[in-house]
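hey can u run this one w/ NDP bound, need the structure tokens asap thx
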Amino acid sequence: MSTRVIDGKRLADNLIREVSEQVQHLLDADLPAPGLAVVLVGEDPASAVYVRNKIKRAREAGMRSIEKRLSEDCTQETLEAIIEELNQREDVHGILVQLPLPKHLSAERVIRLIAPQKDVDGFHPHNVGLLATGQASLIPCTPLGCLEILQRELGDLSGKHAVIVGRSNIVGKPMANLLLQANCTITVVHSKTHQANLLARQADILVAAVGQPELIDESWVKPGAVVIDVGINAVEQAGKRKLVGDVNFSKVAPFAKAITPVPGGVGPMTIACLMKNTLVAAQYARDQANGLHHTLS
Ligand code: NDP
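ok here u go:
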């Protein structure tokens, strides 16, 4: 079987280009560029890299970026005051707080404080509820990126059986809701599922969001399935640090119709979808200012 290795970087570049064209339409109409505020607490090196990439991509898309850096020992009150300020600012359309936060801070409280119409991560309960009830909303970037990949790869997803490995609030659950809306039949498996690999083997679409390096081998995959690997795991191999996914790429790729690599698959699309969400939030703010009332789309 010839397997397609999905080029997430190229798909992300295409999506960023589409977003930047829409940004240009806003600028041509004398409207402000979409503004993305990114809040980083502490010095975690991986988080710093993610934030740097997000800001770089925002600039490539023609957006304004606002970076707020807070020290590791900042208080909940200080962080919340920053969010309140960003909620009020008219030049800020999207707010992202880089997770995880240091242990003494409550991510849940911070997420609830972000104005839902600026919640470009799609984690606020308001947006979670809209997604779960099939209404337009700001959708978590990673599952949105996976959906974009699948639709660009397979076209109409109606009637496909999708198995999602993992049920987290940021990936597994929103992925299930999105694919359900795209008319897939959904199975979600998790750590308490018996013989999860046998269920996964029935899937036309397999999405792995487990956080276990290379857990998914060929025993989980139906020949001809499309495999989306969300996992990002840093491991030591032969004395070197490298990134691997939740899928054992070399064992699974020979059986898959198409598969995302790690790195270079879902990761770049996640960031591109953040730009898409920031554009949607800016368009929403424009329509609100013009007295047009609609839900986010
Ligand atoms: P979580 O740890 O929050 O969730 C993992 C899920 O996998 C849980 O639902 C857990 O089940 C389930 N699970 C664990 N072990 C097994 C098993 N042996 N069999 C079946 N299910 C299992 O992880 P996230 O959803 O946050 O992230 C998943 C992966 O995706 C990570 O590698 C993360 O780094 C990566 N990630 C990548 C992003 C990107 O941009 N590409 C963005 C976000 C995450 P249970 O609920 O029962 O514990």
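Residues 142, 165-168, 170-172, 189-193, 196, 209-212, 215, 230-233, 246, 266-267, 270 surround NDP (CB under 6 Å). anyway lmk if its weird
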